[in-house]
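Reviewers of the previous submission asked for a worked example of the structure-prediction workflow described in the proposal, so we include one complete record here. The input consisted solely of the amino acid sequence. No template or homolog information was supplied to the procedure at any stage.
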Amino acid sequence: MKPYLTPLLQLTLLSILFSCSNNDPSHPNDFPSFTIHLPDSLAEAPLDGRLLLMFSTDADKEPRFQITDAPNTQQIFGMNIEAWEPGTSITFAPEAFGYPLEKMSDLSPGEYQVQALLHIYETFQRSDGHTVKLPMDRGEGQQWNKAPGNLLNTPLTLTIQNGKEYTIVLNQTIPPISPPEDSKYIKHIKIKSDLLSKFWGRDMYLGAHVLLPEGWEEHPDVKYPLAIMHGHFPYDFGGWRTTPPDTTEPCEYSKRFDLDCYNRIVQQEAYDFYQAWTSPDFPRVIAIKIQHANPYYDDSYAVNSQNLGPYGDAITYELIPHIEKQFRGIGEGWARFVYGGSTGGWEALAVQVLYPDEYGACYAACPDPIDFRAYCLTNIYDDKNAYYLDGSFRKVEIAGRRDYLGNVTTSLRSMNMRELALGDKSRSGQQWDIWEAVYSPVGSDGYPQRIWDKYTGDIKPEVAQYWKENYDLAYILQRDWESLAPKLKGKIHIYCGDMDNYYLNNAVYLAEEFLSETNYDGEIDYGDRAEHCWNGDHTQPNHISRLRYHRMFIPKWAEEDMPKIAPTGADTRSWRY
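From that input alone, the workflow returned the following structure tokens.
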């Protein structure tokens, strides 16, 4: 039997339901409200940028250092700011996009460490006619939470309640970073790039850390080969230490490798490299690490790009000849070789393929996807969506990261949502956005065209086709093999763990399918259960091999591969004193 409701009782219930809807946490009137104040003392002119608001339940570190892809990430929301006048306040938009919670209404009431940060953008009038607002690198390697000049507040302990208003006053400016100092062996250079300055409409610079060979000063008539290590932004020439490990420092545990005192292992490896470098038998070469941070990332990927500009040409034809002239390099393609891991692995192969006459060999370890049929776990040509495997009755999220046993810690979608909170229009300064910035054509608004809808994951075939023709290295090798084959014979060496954390080995398998059918006379090798970034050394565990790129690849080039590549009559001996 159904209960009978009188008209008066029906109206009363409707009134109660309406009242409840107004008290629902998702209703804008019941959001906690945050007002961010910009004091006159922190700025002299209106500011553009990305305003970030963070909440953390972990008081051990500032919230800005706890936004990650890991399961224990803390919370962040982001919104764009234009022309923020000093001395005024901004109410943080309740609809601002967040990660891992997307909506502020989903934030549970409770006690949090709360921090706001303004990631400052600069306006660029580019030579392609577009005006864009981007965060210029300021010596930190394009890190939003460390960038000098960014504004933030000392974290506040706040008890957050719905419907309550909070005021946060920015009270700090991240200070400048002091450049590293020269030493007997390591020199630091910085040059203005005419090519990049023209593209960006302001002065742009390239830098490098130069490691000079033992005896360089005592042999003024000798010219040397150049060992070029590509990779993420290096503050200095890392992996080099002229003193034994500091045993007075506290031990630091490596969660990744489950090792105690890993900091001392790293220091010991760096000291061992110094001892090897100065020993009688180590090849005498100039080794460099390049600094090419830019408005999109800590690294340009060392190729020409519609969005980043002609970094490939600038590095190859401006920076490298400058270094060779200043430090007595041989200055010929056969006497330059490139190596690196991850980003640096992709770059090593890319410059070898795109500038085959300018480099004498490449050693690419755990390279970023070199075949976009395996763009990690996405085939950008055949798949319709990057985030999900779609069935008739369910969706399965695609994994983003695993360990050596296959345990997944994040999804591809989650990684992209973190980036979307940090910045729209490919401006997060993170991994998926830089691939997009490098590989994509310019959009009508001057920013990179999306390879897929950043929120839904729906792939855009026309953008994928552009990627294929210009940056899919395996496809370019196959497409242009007739002309490339004589120039690349014996020069390609690729190494990858078969349990790479980001599934990068899948693309290497596909590239190998083609190369194994040719006479490329190179090497492709895999590490059993090895993670990111295994470098081809079967004699050492991953936590050691990843620290030995210089010690492994410089002798390998000089003793095994260079003699097969150097032209007849080349000077292969005067620098082997």
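The longest strand covers residues 110-125. We consider this example representative of the routine output the project will generate in years two and three.
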